[in-house]
Structures are given as structure tokens and as C-alpha cells.
Amino acid sequence: LQGIIQAYKSGITLQGNTTSLGRWDYSGSFFFSISAITTIGYGNLSPSTAVGRIFCIVFALFGIPLNLVLLNEIGQLMLLGVQHCACRLGEVFHWQNKASFLMKTCALVTGLLLFLLLPPLLFSEKEGWSYEEGFYYSFITLSTIGFGDYVIGMNPDRTYPGWYKNVISLWILFGMAWLALVIKFCINLLD
């Protein structure tokens, strides 16, 4: 029994009469990399060898700062897009202040849909979670709290498509950039 538990912790899962390295395949490794450099750290998967731990430390030392730069660039591109749309709308309808407010509201609503309200539907479908559990996972992930009580792709009774973890990894990156913009906007309102 201890051997089975250790194998499961190492990422080996039983699939009928065969085994799979499930969590350490390409998409699982990519997801692990994203959770490490975003500092989410669900705690469900970790290196088990000294070499793996050292590599993880070096990877995080370079990956975390690079990820912060990437998130900042993504956020600035999102903000630039909103500002560009607001300028164009202001030019067309000749109401600059209303256009800026309208575009910021649209960006907020679009982000809410894309990053917090619609993903729980996917999680309900793929993970079997309730909508509330999926919403909770979305917020806990994008805010980088990452308790680890809900982690995608970990149910051995379910089969996940190959694209699933990769798409969720990209969702995490863009969602964190959007949430950082929302927090920055709220801080600016308090000034």
C-alpha cells in the first residue's frame, strides 16, 4: 500500500491494467511549471529527488522574475487595447470621458466572464465540480493563493483531453494579468 501511495505521489496513475506518468507528461509538466513561476504552488506535485529540487529552485529563481515581466507586459497590452478602443470610441461619438468609462466597464465585464464566470462551467464539465467549486478554484488560482484543495486534472477516474492543462495554464497567465489590472485600478480609485 505504501508503494502505491508513493507511486501516486510521484505522478504515476493506474489506468486499467496499465500505468501512466499522468502528471509528469508534457501538459502536466507545463502546468507544474506555470504553477511554480506564478507562485501558486498547489502542493499536489513536487520534485522528489535532490536534483529535481535543485533544478526547481534554479528554475523558480529565473522563472518568477521573468513571469512578472511577462504578466506586466500582458497587462500593459490589455490596458493599451482598452485605452485605444476608448480613444476611437471618443473620436467617433465625441464623448471622451464616457467612452473611457464605457471601455473600462466593458473590459471589467469581459474579464469577469473570461476569467471568473465562464471557466467554472468548463471545470464542472471536465472535473465534475459544482459551479461554486469551479468559481472558488478560479479565484483561488488567479489570486495565487493556491490552497491545493482543488486542482485540475487530478481525478484518476476521469480522462482529460491533451489540450486541457495547456489551455488552463494560458488562462492562468492572462487571468493573473487581468486580475492585477483590476487590483491596480481599485488602488487608483482609492488614491
TrEMBL record:
Major localization class: membrane
Listed GO CC annotations: plasma membrane
Where can this protein be found? Membrane
* A molecular function GO annotation: potassium ion leak channel activity
Q: Membrane: present as a keyword of the record?
A: yes
Query: Which parts pass through the membrane?
Result: 50-70, 101-123, 135-153, 168-190
Domain Potassium channel, chain residue ranges per copy? 20-78, 112-189
Q: How does it sit in the membrane?
A: Multi-pass membrane protein
Q: Which terms does the UniProt entry file under GO BP?
A: stabilization of membrane potential
Offer one Pfam family short name for this entry. Answer: Ion_trans_2
Q: Which UniProt keywords apply?
A: Ion channel, Ion transport, Membrane, Potassium, Transmembrane, Transmembrane helix, Transport
Q: Which family does it belong to?
A: Belongs to the two pore domain potassium channel (TC 1.A.1.8) family.
Q: What is this protein called?
A: KCNKH protein
Q: Source gene? A: Kcnk17
